Amino acid sequence: MSSAVELLSDIRQSSERRPFEVLKLAEPLLNTGKISRVDDVWLVYEQVFTAAIDEGQIELAKTILTILHKRFNDSQRVRRLYGMVNEAVGHPSEAKQLYQQMLDADETNVLASKRLVALLKAEGHTKEAISQLVTYLDTHANDFEAWLELCSLYLRHNLYPQAAFCVEEIILQQPANHYFHLCYAEICYTMGNLGTALKEYLRVVELSTDNVRGFYGVKLVADRILELGNLSKKEQQDAGLADAPQPATLQRLSQLATERLVHAYNSAGETSKKTAEAWLKE
Asked: pTM of the predicted model, to two decimals?
C-alpha cells in the first residue's frame, strides 16, 4: 500500500494529472478499504475524483463525491466538484450557475473562477472567458499561468498588444524562462515592433544557447531591419528602431545566427546541413 500512496503523492506534487495511472494505483486501495488509513485520504479521494472525471468514469466520481460531501458538506471545494460532474455529464448551464453562485458569494474564489473560465472556453465563448480572466487577475495578479491563458485567448482574436502585455507580466514573474521571452519576441515581430523583437530574441539565445527558434529569430529580424534601409524618423519609432544597432552590427548578428543554425543542423547529417545552408541563403 505504501508504494501506491507514495506514487499518488508524487503525482499530486508534480501537478500532473495522469488519470489512468492514478486510477490503477487507487483501485486496490478503494476495493480493500485501505484508503481510509492513508494520511492524506481526502487529498487522495479528490485526486481519484479528478482522474475518474478525466477517464469518463462518472459513477466512480459520483461515489467519491458523496464521500467527500458527507465529510465536507459546506466546502466550496466540494461544490466545485459538483460543477465538474455537471460538466462531464453534459449539463454546462448547471455547472456555470453553480460556479457563478460561488463567485457571487466570494469573488476571490480561485477554484470557481478557473472552472468558469475553462467552461466558457470549452463552449467557445472566448470573449466571456477573457472578461472572467481579467476580473480574476485583478485580484490574483501573481498567477502567471492565468496570464498565459489570457494571452492565448487574446491571440485567438488577433489582439496582439493585449497579448504582449500579458507576456510582459509573465516575464516580470519568470524573467529567466527563455520560452516566455520567445513568445514575447514572436508577438512583437508580428506587431512590427522589430526593435523589441530583436532584443527579446537575443535574450532567448542568451538564456538558451542552443535555441534554434531564437537564433532564427535573430537572423530574421536583423535581416528584416537591414532590408528596410533608410526609414523616416516616424517609421523608425513605429518599428521600435529608434535605438536599433548599426548596419554593421546587424550584419554580424545575422552572420553569427546563421553559423549557429548551420552548426545545429550539422549534427543531423550532411544533407540536413546543406539544406539548412541553402534555406538560410534565400
From this structure: 0.79
CB neighbours of residue 81 within 10 Å: 24
Please state, in angstroms and rounded to a whole number, the distance separating the CA atoms of residues 182 and 204: 6
pLDDT at 75: 87
DSSP string computed for 230-263:
S--HHHHHHTT-TTPPPHHHHHHHHHHHHHHHHH
Taking residues 132-137, what's their average pLDDT?
94
3-state secondary structure of 2: helix
Triad 261, 264, 270: Cα angle to 5°: 105
CA distance 59 to 25: 18
CA 44/CA 94 separation, integer angstroms: 26
Question: Cell for 27?
Answer: 483501485
What's the Cα-to-Cα distance from 134 to each of 160, 181, 271, rounded to whole Å? 16, 22, 49
3-state secondary structure 67-100: HHHHHCCCCHHHHHHHHHHHHHCCCHHHHHHHHH
Q: What number of H helices and E strands is found in the chain?
A: 16, 0
202, with CB counted inside 10 A (0-12, 13-18, 19+), is buried
Residue 175 near residue 167 (C-beta atoms within 8 A): no
* C-alpha span between 51 and 55 (Å, rounded): 6
pLDDT 10s digits, 225-259 = 888 876 666 766 766 676 778 889 989 999 999 88
Would you call 18 helix, strand, or coil by DSSP? coil
Q: Which residues touch 86 (CB under 8 Å, ≥6 apart)? A: 92, 94, 95, 98
Residue 114: name the closest of 103, 101, 127 by CA. Answer: 103
